[in-house]
């Protein structure tokens, strides 16, 4: 069950701008494929184009080698789980799970069996005669899952299925969903705005922003090798620092006290963005040779996120061990940066990644 | 609010206030129900005493009801109204829900414009169109027949408008889920949209039944015999005849007409309240 | 569809490869066409035959003199309209209708509001009273007419008996041109009360209690709470009730036919009753059509205001 998208585009009659353009990707059999992006980026539209709920303006969609652009949704052999679960309030759990099978005119015994199996799989057997309103949010979510399972389709589309659950339940369901997908050998296309969800569940992720595909890659690669500043910023908590810097020979000048050494010359001679993960920064506390002042400290348990202002007002986030004792207005000194990405300041595209170390960061200090 | 007050010194004051509130309720009830209670009361009094202006009698009986049922076609009128209102109601619910469905779930050219056309019909009072409509039903040969009182009201712009609002509140995802399962429009309409809009449909049913039941001008123009005359015009007929001064019997006839609708209303009210609660919970 | 896309989407690839497919709007429309006919056809047919066609016909007839069968005979342009507005009898009908409509609307809303506020109280058995207050909704026009005809009866009616007992001048309500319209107004308001009460009561019930708790803490009096909080918040509902009452009042016919037959001395000869008289009793279909058009214009104007304000409310 491979799904191939070839330069898919979507444009509504009312607007002159396409909402999506040039989306090309191949989704492999049995893959957990996540489409992620901020709200309004067109990820739900893309999912609905694959489902056949929204028409495709241009490009090709093939499902299992068959051109599917014009195929009615029901012939695409897929199931879908919706954000609001799309449960019918007047039907029992069992009726909701079986409603699609019934409309496909399957024999009653077959429907009965499939509903039973699906409900067992999501641990809802004893709730089969309840109405959705008598269930908790998590249980409703499972009913929606059971409906997808019962349909027996090998492709399952999910549109933010966990976003209406509380944080704890969401974490639990992520694991269950992933297990279910593996056990059933489903090809899942999963839409979310939550980068943690994308990172923890996906085999591969398609990052969508501003109507375009930003990057398609494994979670590890998205984090370690972001192709542009957007992707770099989208993944990772706390967020990556994107500091603007001037290129000066083989040095990047972030500010008067923070210079980063480059391995070889860059082909740009204007401003760039330097991406530094908060965990890649080491600091020393104390007024001696300090080059930043702490503005906030957020305690996260064994780690703390420190925000500090460099002397030319750029803010930098640092992830530090909680054993470090630091309070607001403390002066600190950035002593080392373990690695950084350089992005074009204008196009935001990736230019180079530099393995930074003590030698590569030249830190002058006299600001404070 | 009373419950939050200290119980000690103000208890007397609270009691007094409560009695005052009950007195006010009672006065308002008498004003609101006065004419109705008076009618109901006189319907069990002998006409001879009513004519003397008596408001109290010891000769209470159901004689007036028996007279009304045996000597007038009041039951036939009721049956006529029941037939007309029931058929009108069923068709209005069916046709309004179908056209509302079309305006929400079907895509077609000029959908907006056509909906405007429906809205415009809400501005045109039927009372101002009786002259050509009378010619139309006469030409169709429907005068003095149930059909004349049913066919013009088989659908209603108001009902379409109301149900369209309900269907529009249905989450789009329900329709998408149905599309993925391959339900046709007819299946989605009959199996999912209609049950979903149950409460609105019941409300429209009650509304259309009552409006049909209360029709007066149109049946008056189009019916000439007791076989088809609905109850509103039937009561006028009774009143206009020589029995006009037989107050007891007239009141009894009115009571016969009003009691069924009141019962339906009270039962319906209970149902609607339950329905509204159900709607609020989900 | 492809034409509408910018050509430069993908300069490298030949545009042949971009298959211009998808459920584009045109095919979606075609697919639904049968359903449109099935779902919309019957309603459209009924409305065309019994609403649109008669309206056009009425407008057409209003420009003609008609024969006894209601066929247009002589084209007279707008002279039917001009004559009507010069006719004192019609103008007095118009005046009486406005008095009636305004009085009915104001009294209905005030009384409905009083009932709704009183029914808000938390007392034992209040549900029973609420049901009673809404009960006139189930009383149809002819039944109401019988009850009130009896009450207004000059010899046996309660009003006559009360004024007798109090030695007040006796009023023959329905036969006195000064009081007949008032009698019709009272009866109409009474009939309207149940529905109005139910709607206003529902609106008051739905107001969030936190607002009143906040006002209570701030020491705002109950009266001020009603005028400063409740009334503004339910104003959309009040407006809805007002429009419905206005429109229904303009269309009044049954009570008049049952209680006064337009009299005495045309005091209760309201617009719809006049249409009926002129068309079906006097056989003057052209004139009656003109009156119908005027009635329609009034009601359409009120409905338009409603749509306008409704649209505004929905949009913010």
From TrEMBL, chain A:
Keywords: ATP-binding, Cell membrane, Membrane, Nucleotide-binding, Translocase, Transport
A Pfam family per the record: ABC_tran
Cellular component, GO, one term: ATP-binding cassette (ABC) transporter complex, substrate-binding subunit-containing
Coiled-coil residue spans: none
PROSITE patterns: ABC_TRANSPORTER_1 (PS00211), ABC_TRANSPORTER_2 (PS50893)
Domain ABC transporter: 3-235
A single MF term (Gene Ontology): ATP hydrolysis activity
Gene3D superfamilies, sorted: 2.40.50.100, Nucleic acid-binding proteins (2.40.50.140), P-loop containing nucleotide triphosphate hydrolases (3.40.50.300)
UniProt cross-references to InterPro entries, sorted A to Z: AAA+_ATPase, ABC_transporter-like_ATP-bd, ABC_transporter-like_CS, ABC_transpr_MalK/UgpC-like, Mo/tungstate-bd_C_term_dom, NA-bd_OB-fold, P-loop_NTPase, Transp-assoc_OB_typ2
Record PANTHER family: MALTODEXTRIN IMPORT ATP-BINDING PROTEIN MSMX, TREHALOSE IMPORT ATP-BINDING PROTEIN SUGC
Protein's name according to its UniProt entry: ATP-binding cassette domain-containing protein
Native organism: Secundilactobacillus folii
Record lineage: Bacteria, Bacillati, Bacillota, Bacilli, Lactobacillales
From TrEMBL, chain C:
Subcellular location: Cell membrane
Keyword Cell membrane (UniProt): yes
Keywords: Cell membrane, Membrane, Transmembrane, Transmembrane helix, Transport
Pfam entry (one): BPD_transp_1
ABC transmembrane type-1 domain residues: 94-306
Gene3D superfamilies assigned: MetI-like (1.10.3720.10)
Keyword match Hydrolase: no
Any single Gene Ontology cellular-component annotation: plasma membrane
Transmembrane segments: 34-53, 98-119, 131-151, 179-204, 225-247, 292-310
InterPro entries to which the protein is assigned, alphabetical: ABC_transporter_permease, MetI-like, MetI-like_sf
GO-annotated biological processes: transmembrane transport
Membrane topology: Multi-pass membrane protein
Main location: membrane
Similarity section: Belongs to the binding-protein-dependent transport system permease family.
Protein name: ABC transporter permease subunit
Species assigned in the record: Secundilactobacillus folii
């Amino acid at each position: 069950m491979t799904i191939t998208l070839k330069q898919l585009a979507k444009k509504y009659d009312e607007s002159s701008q396409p909402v999506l353009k040039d989306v090309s990707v191949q989704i492999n059999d049995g893959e957990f494929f996540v489409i992620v992006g901020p709200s309004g980026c067109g990820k739900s539209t893309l999912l609905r184009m694959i489902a056949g709920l929204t028409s495709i303006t241009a490009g090709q969609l093939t499902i299992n080698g068959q051109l599917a652009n014009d195929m009615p949704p029901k012939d695409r052999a897929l199931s879908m789980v919706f954000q609001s679960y799309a449960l019918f309030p007047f039907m029992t759990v069992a009726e909701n799970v079986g409603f699609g099978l019934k409309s496909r005119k399957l024999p009653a015994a077959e429907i009965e069996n499939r509903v039973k199996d699906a409900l067992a799989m999501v641990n809802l057997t004893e709730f089969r005669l309840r109405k959705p309103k008598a269930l908790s949010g998590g249980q409703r979510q499972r009913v929606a899952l059971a409906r997808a399972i019962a349909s027996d389709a090998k492709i399952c589309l999910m549109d933010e299925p966990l976003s209406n659950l509380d944080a704890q339940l969401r974490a639990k369901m992520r694991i269950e969903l992933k297990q279910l997908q593996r056990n059933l050998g489903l090809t899942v296309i999963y839409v979310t705005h939550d980068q943690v969800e994308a990172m923890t569940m996906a085999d591969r992720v398609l990052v969508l922003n501003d109507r375009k595909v930003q990057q398609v890659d494994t979670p590890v690669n998205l984090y370690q090798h972001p192709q542009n500043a957007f992707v770099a910023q989208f993944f990772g908590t706390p967020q990556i620092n994107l500091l603007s810097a001037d290129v000066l020979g083989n040095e990047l000048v972030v500010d008067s006290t923070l210079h980063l050494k480059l391995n070889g010359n860059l082909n740009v001679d204007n401003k760039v963005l330097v991406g530094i993960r908060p965990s890649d920064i080491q600091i020393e506390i104390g007024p001696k040779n300090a080059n930043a002042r702490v503005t906030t400290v957020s305690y996260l348990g064994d780690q703390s996120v420190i925000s500090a202002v460099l002397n030319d007002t750029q803010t930098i986030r640092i992830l530090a061990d909680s054993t470090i004792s630091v309070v607001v207005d403390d002066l600190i000194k950035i002593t080392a940066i373990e690695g950084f990405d350089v992005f074009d300041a204008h196009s935001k595209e990736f230019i180079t990644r530099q393995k930074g170390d003590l030698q590569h960061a030249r830190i002058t200090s006299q600001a404070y | 609010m009373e419950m939050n007050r200290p119980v000690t010194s103000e208890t007397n004051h609270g009691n007094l206030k409560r009695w005052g509130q009950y007195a006010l309720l009672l006065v308002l009830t008498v004003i609101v129900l006065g004419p109705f209670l008076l009618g109901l009361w006189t319907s069990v009094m002998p006409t001879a005493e009513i004519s003397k202006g008596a408001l109290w009698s010891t000769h209470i009986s159901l004689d007036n009801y028996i007279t009304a049922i045996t000597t007038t076609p009041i039951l036939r009128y009721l049956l006529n109204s029941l037939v007309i209102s029931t058929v009108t109601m069923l068709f209005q619910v069916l046709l309004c829900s179908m056209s509302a469905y079309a305006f929400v779930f079907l895509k077609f050219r000029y959908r907006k414009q056509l909906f405007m056309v429906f809205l415009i019909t809400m501005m045109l009072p039927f009372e101002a169109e009786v002259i050509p409509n009378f010619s139309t039903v006469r030409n169709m040969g429907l005068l003095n027949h149930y059909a004349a009182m049913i066919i013009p009201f088989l659908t209603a712009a108001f009902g379409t408008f109301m149900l369209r609002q309900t269907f529009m509140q249905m989450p789009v995802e329900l329709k998408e889920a149905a599309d993925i399962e391959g339900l046709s429009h007819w299946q989605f309409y009959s199996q999912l949209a209609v049950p979903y809009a149950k409460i609105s449909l019941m409300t429209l049913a009650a509304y259309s039944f009552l409006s049909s039941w209360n029709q007066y001008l149109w049946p008056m123009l189009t019916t000439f015999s007791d076989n088809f005359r609905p109850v509103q015009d039937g009561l006028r007929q009774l009143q206009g005849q020589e029995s006009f001064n037989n107050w007891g019997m007239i009141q009894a006839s009115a009571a016969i007409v009003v009691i069924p609708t009141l019962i339906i209303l009270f039962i319906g009210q209970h149902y609607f309240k339950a329905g509204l609660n159900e709607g609020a919970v989900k | 569809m492809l034409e509408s896309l910018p050509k430069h989407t993908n300069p490298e690839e030949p545009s042949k490869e971009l298959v211009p497919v998808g459920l584009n709007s045109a095919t979606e429309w075609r697919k639904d066409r049968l359903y449109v006919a099935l779902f919309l056809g019957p309603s459209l047919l009924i409305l065309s035959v019994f609403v649109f066609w008669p309206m056009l016909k009425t407008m057409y007839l209003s420009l003609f003199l008609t024969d006894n069968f209601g066929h247009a005979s002589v084209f007279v342009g707008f002279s039917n309209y001009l004559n009507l507005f010069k006719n004192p009898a019609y103008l007095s009908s118009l005046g009486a209708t406005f008095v009636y409509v305004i009085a009915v609307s104001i009294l209905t809303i005030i009384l409905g509001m009083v009932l709704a506020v009183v029914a808000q109280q938390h007392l034992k058995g209040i549900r029973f009273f609420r049901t009673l207050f809404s009960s006139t909704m189930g009383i149809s026009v002819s039944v109401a007419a019988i009850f009130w005809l009896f009450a207004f009866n000059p010899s046996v009616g309660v009003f006559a008996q009360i004024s007798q007992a109090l030695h007040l001048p006796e009023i023959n309500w329905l036969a006195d041109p000064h009081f007949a319209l008032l009698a019709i107004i009272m009866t109409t308001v009474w009939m309207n009360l149940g529905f109005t009460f139910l709607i206003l009561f529902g609106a008051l019930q739905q107001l969030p209690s936190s607002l009143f708790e906040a006002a209570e803490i701030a020491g705002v009096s109950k009266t001020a709470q009603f005028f400063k909080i409740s009334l503004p918040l339910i104003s959309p509902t009040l407006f809805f009730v007002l429009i419905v009452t206005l429109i229904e009042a303009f269309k009044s016919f049954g009570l008049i036919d049952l209680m006064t037959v337009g009299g005495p001395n045309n005091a209760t000869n309201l617009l719809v009753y006049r249409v009926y008289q002129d068309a079906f009793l006097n056989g003057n279909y052209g004139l009656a059509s003109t009156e119908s058009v005027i009635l329609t214009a009034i009601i359409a104007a009120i409905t338009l205001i409603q749509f306008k304000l409704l649209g505004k409310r929905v949009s913010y």
